[in-house]
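WP5 quarterly update. Target: Probable transcriptional regulatory protein Spica_1339. Source organism: Gracilinema caldarium. Length: 246 aa.
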Amino acid sequence: MSGHSKWATIKHKKGAADAKRGQMFTKLIKEISIAARMGGGDPDANPRLRTAILKAKAANMPKDNVERAIKKGTGELEGVNYEELTYEAYAPGGVAVLIEVLTDNKNRAAADVRNILNKAGGSLATAGAVSRLFKRKGIITFDGEKYTEDQIMEAALEGGAEDVTASDGIIEVSTAPEDFEAVLNALNAKNFESMSAEISMVPDAEVSLDKDATSKVMKMIDRLEENDDVQNVYHNLEIPEDYEEE
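Structure tokens (predicted):
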């Protein structure tokens, strides 16, 4: 598993995801709006919008919220114009971090990201230095207490998935980005309820740090994720199975 998706599911199982549901919905609304603005409001003709809507459904976002976000993107309702930015950075210990931003004020977003990195002992990287360490993959996760790996594997591979792995009570399905929608639909058709479903940046290899350093990096990542302009944070830190958030 990627450190990012694994930590997301750990937090989900701990119940922390519910506390951040409002913030998560805000980020999903921004993603839906910009997808609609760039490719139109018809999901059938806009793959990025389809993917954003699938992600919103996996997060149990109400249909009305999705429809309003689309209308804001297409201009039917008044909305905000967002810019997309990606920052490449290093956290302490040489951990590679990709920070995806959707913002209506790029100067504010840049200052906030730099401030969070600097306070944690991190730094911005040159373009391409970090992104080359990741590959874009579709990642769908399931609760291993509800389903067996064999159950998920059969439906996932039939749908065109690349791999299915199980670890620490989480079953993770990985797909090529272009096959993500077909695999998710195949799993939904078998009535498997996913914990998360997204196209993510997965590291080619992970970096292992000691407990204190791991804690410092995770606190930095949490601060980035809590920023309203930050849409996604991906990293290559290996998170021990016994890691506990302080």
